[in-house]
Amino acid sequence: MNTFQKSAAAFNRVFMVVMKAPVLDRVLGRSMGILTYTGRKSGKKISLPLAISRKGDHLKVGVAMPDKKNWWRNFMNGGGRVDVDLGGVHYTGLATATRDDRGRVFVDIALDR
């Protein structure tokens, strides 16, 4: 794990606690959520706080500095199942990661109905 990844992991641990505070969850929950998935290689359950935009039954996550992160790779080649906590509401869905011709990475999540 490089220095960037260690720093991000420490930030995520603190922010996860903040996200679970009742008042802040309602305020931050409009644009921030907690994504939980099972790592393809490790088999471990992993939770990350992320900025999420929502349009109907679809969520979108833009991955900043994707080459310094690995989590989104779990959703390449067919995607993977996820749990999302957003604004105090729990959702499940299928996440699929794509990289565009400019190198930007997005994770699209189709929520289950």
Outline the structure in words:
Helices cover 21% and strands 42% of the residues. The protein is α+β, with helices and mostly antiparallel strands and 113 residues long. It has a single domain (14-111), classed as Electron Transport, Fmn-binding Protein, Chain A (Pnp Oxidase, Chain A, Roll), CATH 2.30.110.10. It has a seven-stranded antiparallel beta sheet. The radius of gyration is 14 Å and the shape is globular. The protein starts with a helix and ends with a strand. The mean pLDDT is 87.
Please supply descriptive tags for the structure shown above.
seven-stranded antiparallel sheet, single chain, Pnp Oxidase, Chain A, 2 helices, alpha+beta, 113 residues
Q: What proportion strand? A: 35-45%
Poorly predicted regions:
none
Instruction: Examine the secondary-structure arrangement and name the CATH architecture.
Output: Roll
Based on CA inertia axes, which overall geometry fits?
globular
Major beta sheet summary: 7 strands, antiparallel
Instruction: Compute the number of strand runs.
Output: 7
Identify the quaternary structure here. Answer: single chain
The SSE order reads HHEEEEEEE
